[in-house]
Design brief:
Blueprint: E1 2-4, H1 12-27, H2 30-43, H3 56-74, E2 105-106, E3 111-112, H4 151-158, H5 178-194, H6 208-226, E4 274-276, E5 286-288, E6 296-300, E7 307-313, E8 317-324, E9 329-334, E10 342-346, E11 356-361, E12 364-372, E13 379-387, E14 404-408, E15 415-421, E16 425-432, E17 437-442, E18 450-454, E19 464-469, E20 472-480, E21 487-494
Parallel strand pairs: 1-4, 5-7
Antiparallel strand pairs: 2-3, 6-13, 7-12, 8-11, 8-13, 9-10, 9-12, 14-21, 15-20, 16-19, 16-21, 17-18, 17-20
The protein binds copper (II) ion.
């Protein structure tokens, strides 16, 4: 199942993969066919199958999923990201960076001149245009036509029930039609704020269209989860409802297909094989492990299954979680006391293809998620947790003191250090030597709160993090850039 992520959390590589796939569809003509479908829906006027009626949300869900599948034919790892404009609502937000959507339009023409979709690069020429429009380049005018929806406006919209109400069109009361409130009060302002190309019937010409509509789809999915008793309205055959907008109406332009999509067929987005990164995970039943007890037998009985185990740490110390058997499992560790807080993951640090995590853990409840390395394979394994007595405390690095010598002595080893920032200010954490270290800074106080990570900002392949820190205790994790790499290093903290 593809996971649609908040665009602000995409890695540079994920952003690049999305951009590359979008541009591949542009180059082979598929992209413009999608733009034409959206324009054709608007041009159908009072019979628009996609806007100003109950099917606004189902039509766009189907449309986005088809576009996403087209992207996935280019690159199976790509999912649509969503743009949460209640958070990323300024022209300087990273979504508008040169590696993603590019910036605002400039000059009287409002032409977008930066990023992957700038006309000047010669790779993003608009060919499907609204009647009378001849502008071949992408245009934007941030904020000129209004502001982005706030979280409060979203909350208010999501509190509206039922799904829709008579007269089942753009005139439905926004206090009795969730759909029309979401469409008019939340969705339209997103198009308006971006401005330029996003104002047109051909608005998918601006790739941010997909990110905006993905967020609208996410909000609908949340509303559905929060209102399980509220069915889509109206039923097919309701007088005065435009064709395509009834629950079981085939939705144009796909109504000629052997099994045409209907609003009903897209109500469960999980059945369309995607989910959103902020959805509460339906936790399968977990199995409790006892520290020091013999291994517990388990199996990945069906492809894609995830097994969950828990264990209680009563006294802080070093713990080892490992699997046994011939099944290539991957193990993720989460906690303490929160099954969603990721600590670390391991594939093959154990014997054979087994997983092994050795870690200093504070007291609390921990969660282990186990899956097969291959999402299409199954197999048996066993799992155990042990605690080593008298393990060393986390070494302390004195700020502006001598370098501390360390070594990655085994593949996938993680060395932890702590230091105390006595004053607010800039601190430089740096490794030295010929080992390609990768460092991660956590804190203050909580060793699971990520601040920064770095691979090669120091001399050679050394790591360097310069961070402005408040007073408090911080933690540094040192690992080798390569999961199999080993070697000595020195580490210092200077203020
Ligand atoms: Cu639309």
């Amino acid at each position: 199942m593809g996971i649609r992520k908040n665009q602000s959390s995409l890695t540079p590589a994920e952003k690049s993969a999305f951009v590359v796939a979008v541009k591949a569809l542009k180059a082979n003509g598929v992209y413009d066919a999608f733009v034409a479908q959206h324009r054709a829906a608007f041009l159908a006027g009072p019979n628009d199958p996609a806007h100003g009626g109950p099917a606004f949300l189902p039509w766009h869900r189907e449309y986005l999923r088809r576009f996403e599948r087209a992207l996935q034919e280019i690159d199976a790892s790509v999912s649509l990201p969503y743009w949460d404009w209640t958070v990323d609502r300024t022209p300087t937000a990273s979504i508008w960076g040169p590696n993603f959507m590019g910036d605002n339009g400039t000059g009287a023409s409002q032409q977008v001149t930066t990023g992957p979709f700038a006309f000047l690069t010669g790779e993003w020429t608009l060919t499907v245009l609204d009647p009378g429009d001849t502008t071949a380049f992408l245009t934007r005018a941030f904020g000129a036509m209004g502001s982005l929806p706030t979280q409060q406006a979203v909350d208010t919209a999501k509190s509206v029930v039922p799904y829709d109400s008579p007269p089942w069109n753009a005139g439905s009361n926004v206090n009795t039609s969730f759909r029309n409130r979401l469409e008019r009060v939340i969705h339209n302002p997103g198009h308006m704020w971006v401005g330029g190309s996003m104002m047109a019937m051909s608005s998918p010409n601006d790739p941010v269209f997909w990110l905006h509509h993905c967020n609208i789809d996410r909000l609908w999915a949340e509303w559905q989860t929060e209102n399980p008793g509220r069915m889509y309205l109206p039923p097919s055959g309701t007088p005065g409802v435009v064709a395509g907008h009834g629950l079981d109406d085939p939705m144009p332009p796909w109504d000629g297909e052997p099994t045409p999509p209907t609003p009903r067929s897209v109500l469960n987005h999980h059945a369309l094989d995607y989910s959103y990164d902020n959805e509460p995970t339906t936790t399968p039943e977990s199995v409790a492990l006892t520290i020091g007890a013999p291994p517990v037998s388990a199996s990945i009985g069906r492809a894609g299954e995830v097994d969950i185990f828990t264990f209680e740490v009563s006294a802080a110390g070093n713990h080892v979680i490992e699997t046994q058997g011939t099944t290539d499992v991957v193990m993720g560790l989460y906690g303490p006391d929160d099954s969603e807080v990721f600590i670390t993951e391991d594939d093959d640090s154990g014997t054979g293809q087994n997983s092994r995590i050795a870690r200093d853990l504070s007291a609390g409840t921990y969660y282990v998620r186990l899956r097969h390395y291959s999402s299409s394979s199954t197999g048996n394994y066993s799992i155990s947790v042990s605690a080593s007595a008298g393990q060393p405390a986390v070494p302390t690095i004195a700020v502006n003191g001598p370098a501390v010598a360390g070594a990655i002595s085994a593949g996938n080893e993680r060395d932890m250090y702590t230091f105390t920032a006595a004053n607010s200010g800039s601190y430089t954490i740096e490794t030295a030597g010929s080992t390609d270290c990768f460092i991660t800074l956590y804190g203050p106080v909580n060793p699971n709160t990520l601040i920064a990570q770095d691979d090669d900002s120091g001399p050679g392949t050394n790591s360097r993090i310069v961070a402005s820190l408040a007073p408090g205790a911080y933690f540094i994790q040192v690992r080798h850039y390569s999961p199999a790499g080993t070697g000595p290093y020195n580490i210092t903290v200077k203020s």
